[in-house]
Design a protein that fits this description.
The complex is a heterodimer. By secondary structure, chain A is an all-alpha fold. Chain A has a domain of 196 residues. Helices cover 78% and strands 2% of the residues of chain A. Chain A is built from 20 helices and 2 strands. In chain A, α4 packs parallel to α10. The longest helix of chain A has 32 residues. The two termini of chain A are 39 Å apart. The termini of chain B are close together. By secondary structure, chain B is an all-alpha fold. Chain B is built from 6 helices and no strands. The chains are: A mainly alpha, B mainly alpha.
């Protein structure tokens, strides 16, 4: 037990990383699935232990290979990092049991084991991004997760999945390259790649053009990866044409981890400079975030494919997270961090419910979902409940995030921003209502009136995630406390 | 799909391939003292197989190295690398801390780096072969399938 406690920060990465090649060796879809599920559940347990350890003892620093930082690569896990690890592994543990039936329906049999291998690699990469304390190692894990993601999207059964994956491949690579260019410039100025070390070395060179340009490259690079408006163009098609289980997993995790990486870079690596203030870009970031909130929601209203509708809604939700970061006081920052967790729960549940719809009726187009409230009452109810959370109805997680954000905006004296948060929620009402209206107030097409629900193996994980979305909406003490103390630590570093 | 007419190419490549393989092994196992290491060795080892594939055709190459073999080697390399790290954990060190692998840290570092680089070599070798076959296979599929001569030529080029 002490062995696990001692090495837990590296175990959460290498368990899925080593499980992935084993899936390729067994070359059997069902066996790979069982193995991947087991690994994801075990990793979820590990990430809970990790969270407990961080809450009890504070930040964990782990020297890989026994080489201390700044010479060696270190893992550096604080509260937000542990929360992100928890998000990724929890979503993985819920999506994996769900994936079997869904993937059997949507991916050719001979590729099943490759899909599970890629899911595990993606998990390892995302968790690695959250735990690493080395800026170059962050790039390596970013690429591990991204390459796995491109493959997963290309596995979609629609031919357009290939072009969606290619577009994401190109834009994602541009993003990662931008990050490395920026990092190269910082390395040139400081001679270090260790995040803690960089934080102490950067203030001395903060007024050089190189560091300005480096920061711009890094922010734009991660802006692409986290789909910050107007760098979001890869996201809607990628989410729409990927297999349902993959979309549920990616929508719940990938962009959040990129947001977290950006937080780490801005508030710890560049923390002593306080770049948003020093370089006067706070307003610019805020405008992009708010533009994303409105553009994402407005485009979502006009979508006829519900998966694409939710994908555009994700662009808007990323806007809320970035808004929380850009306001820059503790409640707003906490709101952004909580929203990473909360959005993972609700968007994961919604995409899983859509996976159930696709499983039964073979389409997620709005017109094909007519009368779904009668045909698949449990699934339709899940979509409505998830939709409430997107709007931010009280008792749902969406309310908690928006509450913190509005509180932060008001505390900063930015009441127009608070108003805009409310207004953009009204747009969410419109796109959620469109789906509700079609599901409950239109009669099903002739010949499709029979009541057929998705199998339990799909519904149960969906409802577990949905239950969590309400649980943390009613009792937000855990998420609220973690996010608040994390926000204070992050902002404390910038003063 | 064999290049029947190009006698010189066939003979010279047959003479060259063993030396390329030998050089790859040198770069692999001498990488801890001289220039080289797993990545370079893997690429050179794969280059020998690519030459074989170029001269004798993709089909012949895939007979020697079916896709299940490359996928297996690809996975084993990753497992070997991470496995060394886990052995370090079990022997009481940090992940990939080679010091604990032998009776003294110097030998430990030596064994550790050799094993890890071998893992890299395996994966890079299999990865390069997989990429080569994927592209070469596409070239063969792109030409007119109703013209066997053209297909054969595309496979040979």
């Amino acid at each position: 037990m002490s062995f696990i406690a001692e090495h837990i920060s590296v175990l959460v990465v290498i368990v899925p990383l080593m499980a992935a090649p084993l899936c390729v060796i067994v070359r059997h879809g069902a066996v790979s699935w069982g193995w991947a599920t087991l690994v994801c559940l075990a990793n979820f347990g590990l990430s809970i232990l990790l969270m407990q350890q961080v809450l009890a003892n504070g930040t964990i620093v782990y020297d890989l290979g026994g080489w201390e930082g700044p010479w060696g690569i270190v893992y550096h896990i604080d509260e937000v990092g542990a929360l992100v690890v928890l998000i990724v592994s929890a979503i993985a543990a819920i999506v994996m049991p769900y994936a079997k039936e869904s993937i059997e329906r949507e991916i050719p049999k001979e590729r099943h084991y490759l899909a599970y291998c890629m899911m595990l690699l993606c998990i390892a990469g995302l968790i690695g991004m959250a735990v690493t304390g080395d800026a170059f190692n962050l790039f390596v894990f970013l690429e591990v997760s991204s390459l796995a993601t491109y493959v997963l999207i290309a596995l979609g059964n629609d031919r357009r999945a290939l072009t969606a994956a290619l577009r994401y491949l190109i834009l994602g690579t541009v993003g990662a390259t931008f990050y490395v260019i920026g990092l190269g410039m910082i390395y040139m100025m400081t001679g270090s790649l260790n995040m803690t070390d960089l934080a102490s070395l950067l203030p001395a060179v903060q007024n050089t053009g190189t560091v300005h340009v480096a920061l711009a490259f890094i922010v734009v690079g991660f802006g692409l990866k986290l789909a910050l408006f107007p760098l979001h163009v890869w996201l809607p098609n990628a989410y729409t044409f990927a297999p349902s289980a993959v979309t549920a997993f990616l929508a719940a995790t990938a962009t959040k981890v990129a947001v977290y990486a950006l937080i780490r870079l801005i508030f710890t690596v560049f923390g002593d400079i306080d770049p948003l203030e020093t370089y006067g870009v706070r307003a610019a970031v805020m405008v992009l975030a708010i533009a994303g909130m409105f553009a994402g929601s407005l485009i979502a209203i006009y979508q006829s494919n519900v998966k694409r509708l939710l994908a555009y809604s994700s662009v808007a939700q990323v806007g809320y997270m970035i808004l929380g970061i850009s306001i820059g006081n503790a409640p707003a920052m906490a709101g952004g961090i909580i929203h990473m967790f909360n959005h993972a729960l609700m968007k994961g549940a919604l995409f899983m419910a859509l996976g159930c719809v696709f499983y039964v009726i073979g389409s997620v187009k709005l017109e094909d979902m007519a009368g779904l409230g009668k045909r698949m009452p449990l699934t339709a109810a899940a979509i409505v409940a998830g939709g409430f959370s997107l709007i931010g109805v009280p008792l749902t997680v969406g309310f908690i995030s928006k509450f913190y954000l509005v509180e932060g905006a008001l505390a900063a004296g930015m009441w127009p921003v608070a108003l805009l948060i409310m207004l953009s929620s009204l747009l969410a009402v419109i796109y959620v209502w469109r789906v509700v209206e079609v599901m409950y107030f239109r009669s099903p097409a002739i010949g499709c009136e029979t009541r057929t629900e998705a199998p339990m193996s799909l519904l149960v994980p969906t409802y577990i995630l949905l239950g969590a979305a309400f649980w943390f909406g009613i009792d937000a003490t855990f998420t609220g406390d973690v996010a608040m103390s994390a926000a204070q630590t992050l902002l404390g570093g910038s003063k | 799909m064999m290049m029947r007419r190009k006698m010189v190419l066939r003979v010279v490549s047959k003479l060259l391939i063993p030396f390329i393989l030998l050089f790859a092994l040198y770069v692999q196992w001498h990488g801890d003292f001289g220039p080289g290491g797993g990545f370079q060795a893997g690429v050179i080892f794969a280059a020998a197989f690519m030459l074989y594939g170029l001269i004798y055709g993709l089909g012949t190459l895939r007979e020697a190295l079916p896709s299940w073999v490359t996928r297996l080697v690809l996975s084993l390399g990753v497992l070997l690398y991470a496995g060394v790290g886990v052995v370090c954990l079990l022997l009481g060190g940090n992940f990939l801390d080679y010091d604990v692998l032998a009776h003294d840290p110097l030998h430990g570092q030596h064994y550790g780096i050799i094993l890890v680089e071998f893992g890299v070599g395996l994966t890079v070798f299999a990865g390069i072969i997989t990429i080569f076959c994927a592209f070469a296979g596409r070239a063969a599929a792109d030409v007119n399938p109703h013209d066997p001569e053209e297909t054969a030529r595309a496979g040979d080029d």
